[in-house]
Amino acid sequence: MQEHYFELVVKLSSHHSLFSDFLSDTLPVGFEETDSGFIIRSEEDLDTIIWGLEQFAEALQKALGENIEIECNQTKLKNADWVKEYQKSIQPLQIDKFYIHPTWNEPNDELINIVIDPALAFGTGHHPTTASSLRAIAKYVKKDSKVLDVGCGSGILGVGALKLGAKVDACDTDIVCVENSEVNAKLNEVKFNNLWEGSCSLAKDTYDVVVANIVADVLTFIANDLKSVMKSDGILVLSGILDKYEDKVLRFYKDLEILEKIKEDEWITLVLKRG
Fold first, then answer.
1. Strand order in the sheet with 70-78
2. CA 181 to CA 89: how far, in whole Å?
3. 231, pLDDT greater than 70
4. What is the torsional sign of CA 58, 59, 65, 71?
5. What's the pLDDT band for 26 if we cut at 50, 70, 90?
6. DSSP-H helix ranges across 79-204
7. Residue 17, exposed/middle/buried by CB under 10 A (0-12, 13-18, 19+)?
8. Long-range contacts: 76-80, Cβ < 8 Å, 24+?
9. How many CA atoms within 13 Å lie on the side-chain side of 132?
10. pLDDT tens profile 131-185
């Protein structure tokens, strides 16, 4: 262990979730979310991250036409066991019938446990899009359902479906996500039926439930692929949609019936079915 480490305290005026997504896609280490922003700790200086955050804030201001205030304060501190302190900050949470917790917390005997350790760019259930997707899975996935998780990330959604007794395939265009999904499946003592690097167009089956927690633009690009892997009475769960893009996404799925909308903060999850 090095003698010192760097701590970066980031304070934001708005759009915490967008900055959280940016950090998840950028950082090689985990980070702590606070009411006002984030705390990032590393044994390497975080100057590059500060620059990236400032550039992201500037681009976001131009895109949204809003003023976003960001304050970054980096300090060099004597190295205590900050990993343990960070672990204490990650709290288990219940989402419907699921209980998501890291390996260092005890399981809940009354709920369906999903073990996920915070890691680079992967869902832990704390983000609204992951949470609402899990709520949809809890409601619509049944024992022996055939499920496809598109853009699987950490594998948390697929693992949730597997724990309900479903037969689950999963894919992601990022090999790191595919590898991490496999690791998390083993950690939870479940196994994907098929897991591949690439798009859902490579699927060789059709599914009772298709889940895609990505971003609005990608959901529009792959609309035909997603619909092609649904069974005739299948259900499609679309998440990762900022509320202002809901109508844009729905234009590409107007041939499907809206069963439910799940709204958390500024995020929308759509549950669709063939009419």
1. 31-33, 37-42, 4-12, 70-78
2. 23
3. yes
4. negative
5. confident
6. 82-89, 128-140, 156-163, 175-187
7. middle
8. 76/4, 76/5, 76/6, 76/45, 77/4, 77/5, 77/6, 77/7, 78/3, 78/4, 79/1, 79/2, 79/3, 79/4, 79/5, 79/43
9. 24
10. 999 999 999 999 999 999 999 988 999 999 999 999 999 999 989 889 999 999 9
Cα–Cα dist 44/164, whole Å:
42
Q: Rounding to the nearest 10 degrees, give the CA dihedral for residues 10, 18, 158, 135.
A: 100
* Mean pLDDT score, 2-9: 85
Give the pLDDT band of residue 77 (cuts 50, 70, 90): confident
Q: Rounded to whole angstroms, what are the CA distances from 170 to 62, 154, 199, 208, 274?
A: 36, 11, 10, 14, 22
The b/e string for 137-161 (b: 16+ C-beta within 10 A; e otherwise) is bbbbbeeebbbbbbbbbbbbbbbbb
Q: What is the CA radius of gyration of the chain?
A: 19
State the pTM of this model. 0.72
Identify the structural domains of the chain with CATH numbers, from first to last. 4-86 (3.30.70), 90-274 (3.40.50.150)
DSSP 8-state symbol, 255: T
Residue 130: which of 103, 102, 107, 159 has the closest Cα?
159
